[in-house]
Amino acid sequence: MDLEFSPQEQQFRAELRAFLVAKLPADISRKVKEGKRLAKDDFVRWQKILHAQGWGAPSWPERFGGTGWSAVEQHIFDEESAAAGAPLQLPFGLKMVAPVIMAFGDAAQQAQFLPRIVDGSDWWCQGYSEPGSGSDLASLKTRAERRGEHYVVNGQKTWTTLAQHADWIFCLVRTASEGRPQEGISFLLIDMKSPGVTVRPIIMNDGEHEINEVWFDEVNVPVGNRVGEENRGWTYAKFLLGHERTGIAGVGRSKAALKHLKEIARRETCRGRPLIEDLRFRDRIAQVELELMALEITNLRVLSSEKEKKAPGPEASILKIKGSEIQQTIAELQMSALGHYALPWQPEALDAHWDGESIGPDYAAPLTGHYFNYRKTTIYGGSNEIQKNIIAQMVLGL
Amino acid sequence: MNFDYTEEQNALRDTLTRFIAKDYPFEARRALAKTAEGFSRDHWSQFAELGLLALPFPDACEGLNGNAVDNLVVMEAFGRGLVLEPYFATVILAGHLLRDFASDEQKRALLPKIGSGERMLALGHYEADARYELARIATTVTPQGSGFRLSGQKAVVLSGGCADQFLISARSAGGSSDAQGLSLFLVDRHTPGLKLSSYSTQDGGRAAELVLDQVEVGAQSLVGSLGEALPAIERALDYGIAALCAESVGIMGALNEATLEYLKTRKQFGQAIGRFQVLQHRLVDMFIATEQARSMALLAAVKADALDPAERRRTLSAAKAYVGQQARLVGQQAVQLHGGMGVVDELNVAHYFKRLTTINLTLGDIDHHLGVYSDSLLAA
C-alpha cells in the first residue's frame, strides 16, 4: 500500500506539465478556464497536438496506437490536463466506440477507424437513446433491414451530444424483433454524410446547442460497418457502458473546478469579508472536497484492479454516481458564490471574441448556465438510478 | 502508487479473520462484555502470541516494526469482531505515544512488556471542559522534590479500568489553551492520590474517570521533554483516528453483509424484501458509502505515518469527519432495513451500530473534524 506518487510517476507528471506549458494553445486554455464556448476546431486542434506527441489515446493499449499508460498515469494525465485548461478529450470515439472496435471489430474495421480516431480526423457521436428508449434502452426501435450487402436504417436517435460536428455515429439498431428485446440488437457504424441522415438541434437549459436529434430515413449502411455479430449488439453496448463509466468520475476536472470555486470564494465578499471566511459557505466547500478526496482514491483503486481483470466491472458505477454528484455540487457552489450576479443571462459573454462589458464579475457569466447544464451528469451515461440498479444486481446480487 | 497489501498483511488479515470467526462469535462477545472486566485475558495472551501487541514497536524493543497500514488490517478485523480487549488504548494510543516520544530507556523498559501482554496502559488526556480541544488542559504539574506533583481530572479514559499504568498529560506552563507547556507523565495505577472509577460504555467497552489529588511521581516518570508533549499527543491521537477509521470500515462491511443477507431472506408481501427497489437503492448507498470510507481510511493510515505534521493533521481530520458521516449513514440504515430486528439487543446489528456511534464521538466528532478541515482551507 503506497498512496504517494513514485519518483517515476512524479517525473511523468513533470514531463506532462512541461508539455502542456509548451504545446497547449493559449487561446484554447483561456476559453476552457473562463468557461467560454469551445468550437469544433478547438477540440480537433488539441487532439492533433496530443497525437503528434504520441499521446492521442491515453487509455488505449500500445498495439492500437495508444500510450499503454497505467491507471495512475492516466489519472495524472487527466489531472494535469484539467489543471492546465486543456479541453476534455471527447469520449465518444476514444473511450466509447474504440474499445468496442478493439474487442469485437474485425481487422479491417480496426485499420479503418482506430487511426482516424487517435489522430483527430474523425469526430464520433453516440446513437443509443431514442425518444421512447431512455433507461429502458433495450426497447429501442430504430430498424436496420438487411438488403443484400447493406442495411437500410430507419428511425430516430436523440440526446446525441455534438452530433452537429460528427463524421460518424455508432448506433444500436434493431435487426430482429423475436425473443427478448436485448437479443435483436446490432451495433452499426454509420457515416453521418450518408443520404437520409438529418441532425436537428435540441437547445438545452443553458440556451446552448450541445445535443441533437438524429433522424435516419432509408439510410444505406454497408454490412461491413456492423461490429461483431448480428443481434449481439447488446453485449457490446454493455461492454461500452462499462468503459464509459471509468472515464466519467472526472476527478481531475473536479479538482480544477474546486480550485476555481475557492478562487471565486476568495474574491466574493460576505459581510465585508472574503466569502471563504464565512463558516457556512466554507463548510460546504470542505464537505465536497472530502467527497472528492475519497473519490480520487476509490477511482484509482477501481482502475488499478481493472488493469488486472482487463475489463471494467460494475464497481465502476460507483465512480459515475459519486463523480456526477460531486460535479453538480461544485457547479452549484460556484453559482451560489456569485450571489446577485448569478442572475444575469449574458450568452454573448461566452463567445471568446466578444469584447463587450461583463455584467458583474468577469468570471460570473458561464457559471449559472453551467449549473443548469450539469444537471445532465446524473442523467446521462445511464442515470444514477440505473447505476444503482446495476450495483444492486451485479455486485450485491439482489 | 499501489493499492496492494503485502504478503505479510494478507497473512495477518487471514489469521485475524479466522480468529474472529472461531474465537470471537457474537454470542461469546456479548457474554464477555457483561463480565466484570469486560474482556478476556486469554484473548490478550493470544494477541501477544500473534505479535499484535508488539506490532508497531521497533525491533530494539522486541517489536515488529509495523506501520499504520498494518494497524488498519488489525483494526478492520477487530471492527468485524467488535473486539473488546484494550488494544486501542494500550497499543494504538499509549503504544504509539511511547514509541514516538519516550526516551530510549523508557521504551526499552516498557514496550517489550506491552508486547508480551504483561502490561496494559491507558491515555488520560481529554478533560471534561475541553470537549475535543487538545490543548485545553487544566490538570497541573508542579515540581516536588526531584519529581513532580500532579493535580486535576481526566474524563472518559478509554480502558482505564484495566490499565496498569496511565500516560497523563498536565500543564507545566502557559495559559489554559496554550500549545506550549503540556507535559506527559507515566503514572502507576496504585500511586497514592490517584482515584479511578471505571464504568461501562454504550458499546460494551469500559472507560474511567480519573481524579489526581496531589499525586507525587518521580523524575523518571516524565515522558519526553517538559512542556513539549502536545505535538506528540496529537500524533498519537492521529494514529488513533486512523485506527478508528479502519475499525469503522470493518464494521460497515459487516453491517452491509448482514443487511444484504436480511434483504434476501426476509419476506413481506409474498416476496423477499430485497426485491423492492427502494430497499435495493438504500443498500447500494450503504455499499458506496463503505467503499468511499475505505478509500479515506486507507488515506488516513498512509498519512498517519506522514512526516509533515500539517499535512497529516488536515488529512486525518478529513478522514475522521468523512468516515464518520459514512458510518452514520451505514449504521442508521442497517438498523432501518432490519426493521424491528435492528433495534433488539440479541442481534449483532444493534451492537455494530452502537460501536459506530461511539467511534464517531471518540477523538473528536464529525463537526469538530469538519471544522478543522474547513479552517485549513483558509491557510491553503
What key phrases describe this protein's structure?
heterodimer, A: 398 residues, alpha+beta, Butyryl-CoA Dehydrogenase, subunit A, domain 2, Butyryl-CoA Dehydrogenase, subunit A, domain 3, four-stranded mixed β-sheet, 12 helices, globular, B: 380 residues, Butyryl-Coa Dehydrogenase, subunit A, domain 1, four-stranded antiparallel β-sheet
Describe the 3D structure.
- The complex is a heterodimer of chains A (398) and B (380).
- Chain A is of the alpha+beta class.
- Chain A has three domains: 83 residues, no CATH class; 110 residues, Butyryl-CoA Dehydrogenase, subunit A, domain 2 (Beta Barrel); 148 residues, Butyryl-CoA Dehydrogenase, subunit A, domain 3 (Up-down Bundle), CATH 1.20.140.
- Helix content of chain A is 46%, strand content 15%.
- In chain A, strands 1-4-5-8 form a four-stranded mixed sheet. Chain A has a four-stranded antiparallel sheet with strand order 2-3-7-6, with no helix packed on it.
- In chain A, strand 9 and strand 10 form a beta hairpin.
- The radius of gyration of chain A is 22 Å and the shape is globular.
- The two termini of chain A are 32 Å apart.
- In chain B, the strands form three sheets. In chain B, strands 1-4-5-8 form a four-stranded mixed sheet, covered by helices on one side. A four-stranded antiparallel sheet of chain B has the order 2-3-7-6, with no helix packed on it.
- In chain B, strand 2 and strand 3 form a beta hairpin.
- In chain B, helix 7 packs antiparallel against helix 8, helix 8 packs antiparallel against helix 9 and helix 9 runs antiparallel to helix 11.
- Chain B is globular.
- Chains A and B meet through helix 9, helix 10 and helix 12 of A and helix 7, helix 8, helix 9 and helix 11 of B.
